[in-house]
From TrEMBL:
It is a multi-pass membrane protein. Residues 556-576 are annotated as: Disordered. Keywords: Cell membrane, Membrane, Transmembrane, Transmembrane helix. The chain crosses the membrane at residues 12-31, 43-64, 101-124, 136-157, 202-228, 249-274, 304-326. InterPro entries: Na/Pi_transpt. This is Na/Pi symporter. It comes from Shinella lacus. It comes from the Bacteria. NCBIfam families: Na_Pi_symport.
């Protein structure tokens, strides 16, 4: 049958690649929009330690039977900021083992299943009114489209395997020397890279070996190359993602490359061990069995499956002690000065061990809220083009948004029914301050975005600088240690123009500035005005409750309770 390269190969491959990348984007966006706190807690339980990460990766991949999909999903979760690099490395290790646990399921029609599930979740996303349901549907739709995209790419490249030249090449391959072994490994890696499935490649090799087209040793060598080639998909998945997502993909690649480099010199020794072990699984795989008058080799698939499983288990056991080394090395790959900036998506002071101690939890919340405020102030540095500031305002805002959710959740969990009214009032005040801080950060984000998007002329730039300096000075009322201290000069010496004055100066620019410039400055002034109102609200909220007094009374109550429990009796607590 003649193959139409355009229709049968290019169309499904390019279309499948696009759907695959879109599915990854949808999945990451859906996960990010869902409850990040609950997702993080779930993953902390599933992959909180390297051992748990390996077990989780093995189990989940064993169920879905696709290390490619599992690795792509992990890369997407790392990109969404939900999974850190270290647990991702251990999960990917487990995924390599999990994919070998059910090679009998390699013919599972995940492509059509992905399409119908993608369609169902797309309809749910379009018609659902609840935002949470829409986000869940978006994440599920993305995951389903990953399967369908991979299926399209595999289908587009499958006709190439039917070409006579390809079959002739396979029949001439024989892993009888180290040179030919390396050639077999590289060819299998190339085939796997094209069809994006090590399981599919191993299935093909099993069939070729069982039919006698490949001898069993060569078939085993091909399975080794399949484990190497499957890394191409995680690399493709990480192309347009964050640096940590790229590093997770590099971890997958480096594991398999190191494993293959170690196994190749030991290949013929391991083949001898496998030949000895096969006596418990049916006998010598090189001995043919006559079926309908034709020679077949039914034990070759068993040998290939055993070797593939052994390789991945051996590779994981060998490299598992070096997870920390991998993390340190990979964290330096592509590192820039920007990454030395603090990661504001992870709380620093919200220790769960303090959550039941009101007197210690409240100061931790205050420190974390102040840290959130500091992260918001960095948008002024972004607006000014500071080289040490984050380069992408959107990514930095995403980090502050995650931190804001953590602060609100931690603070809300302090509310207990048996708490005195003054403590409940303080918790409410902390929640309101956190909410005002989140709104202020959003306004600061808008300031940075507007300044970065527009190129201002010589007449307009001084107005922008004055507006930023004004906001900078206003921030010091709630951030005394922020920026440079005010110069010690007579009162009134340092004067910042009011928003109304800056607006009037903008309107009077006339032909000295374009309409887009003036419109941007006016919108910028609106964001600054909202920011200043929120700064005043934060300052007022801090003063609305005598926080030190409430904390002092809480400490007295705690000491009284501790003394009572220590003496084994009951000690009355003075009434307020």
């Amino acid at each position: 049958m003649e193959i139409d390269i355009f229709k049968d190969v290019l169309v499904p491959v390019i279309g499948g690649l696009g759907i695959f990348m879109l599915g990854l984007e949808f999945m990451a966006n859906g996960i990010q929009a869902l409850s990040v706190n609950k997702m993080r807690e779930f993953l902390a339980k599933a992959a909180g330690t390297p051992v748990k990460g390996v077990l989780a990766g093995t189990f989940i991949t064993g169920v879905i039977q696709s290390s490619t999909a599992m690795t792509v999903m992990v890369v997407g979760l790392v990109n969404a900021g939900v999974v850190g690099l270290r647990p991702a490395i251990s999960v990917i290790m487990g995924a390599n083992i999990g994919t070998t646990l059910g090679n009998g399921l390699i013919a599972l029609p995940l492509g059509p299943l992905g399409l119908i599930l993608g369609g169902i979740f797309a309809l749910i996303y379009c018609f659902a009114k609840n935002e949470k349901v829409r986000n869940i549907a978006l994440a599920c739709m993305g995951f389903a489209l990953i399967f369908y995209g991979l299926n399209l790419m595999t289908g587009g490249l499958r006709p190439l395997r039917n070409l006579p030249e390809v079959m002739e090449l396979l029949q001439t391959l024989k892993a009888d020397s180290y040179f030919n072994l390396i050639k077999c490994v590289l060819i299998a890696a190339g085939v796997t890279a094209m069809i994006h499935s090590s399981s599919a490649t191993i299935g093909i090799v099993m069939g070729l070996g069982a039919a006698g087209i490949l001898d069993w040793t060569t078939a085993v060598a091909f399975s080794l190359g399949a484990d190497l080639g499957t890394t191409i998909t995680s690399w493709m998945a990480s192309l347009n993602l964050s640096k940590n997502a790229k590093r997770a993909a590099y971890a997958h690649i480096s594991f398999n490359i190191i494993g293959v480099c170690i196994t190749v010199p030991l290949f013929f020794v391991s083949i001898g061990i496998l030949e000895w072990a096969m006596q418990w699984f049916g006998g010598d795989p090189a001995v043919p069995v006559l079926v309908d008058g034709k020679e077949t080799f039914p034990l070759v698939p068993v040998a290939v499956g055993l070797y593939s499983t052994f390789f991945n288990v051996f590779n994981t056991l060998l490299l598992f002690p070096f997870i920390g080394v991998f993390e340190r090395v990979l964290s330096r790959v592509g590192r820039t000065d920007e990454e030395d900036i603090e990661d504001y998506s992870t709380p620093r002071f919200l220790d769960r061990k303090l959550a039941n101690d009101f007197a210690q939890a409240v100061p931790a919340i205050q420190k974390e809220t102040a840290r959130h405020l500091q992260a918001g102030a960095m948008f002024l540095n972004i607006a000014r083009g500071d080289k040490k500031a984050p380069s992408d305002p959107g990514e930095h805002y995403l980090a502050t948004d995650i931190l804001s959710r953590d602060i609100r959740l931690y603070t809300s969990n302090l509310m207990k029914e048996d708490l005195p009214y003054d403590q409940l009032d303080l918790i409410a005040s902390l929640i309101e301050e956190a909410d005002f801080t989140a709104a202020l950060t959003e306004s600061m984000h808008q300031v940075a975005r507007r300044v970065r998007r527009e190129k201002f002329g010589a007449e307009a730039q001084p107005i922008v600088d004055a507006a930023l300096n004004k906001l900078d000075a206003t921030l010091r009322s709630i951030m005394p240690d922020y920026g440079l201290a005010d110069p010690q000069m007579p009162a009134g010496h340092v004067n910042h123009p009011a928003v109304e004055e800056l607006r009037a100066r903008t309107l009077s620019l006339g032909p000295n500035a374009g309409a887009a410039e003036r419109g941007t400055i006016l919108a910028l002034l609106g964001s600054i005005e909202r920011a200043e109102i929120l700064i005043q609200r934060i300052d007022a909220e801090r003063k609305s409750v005598n926080r030190q007094s409430v904390l002092a009374r809480a400490s007295v109550r705690k000491e009284a309770r501790d003394q009572s429990m220590g003496s084994g009796g009951f000690s009355p607590v003075p009434a307020e």
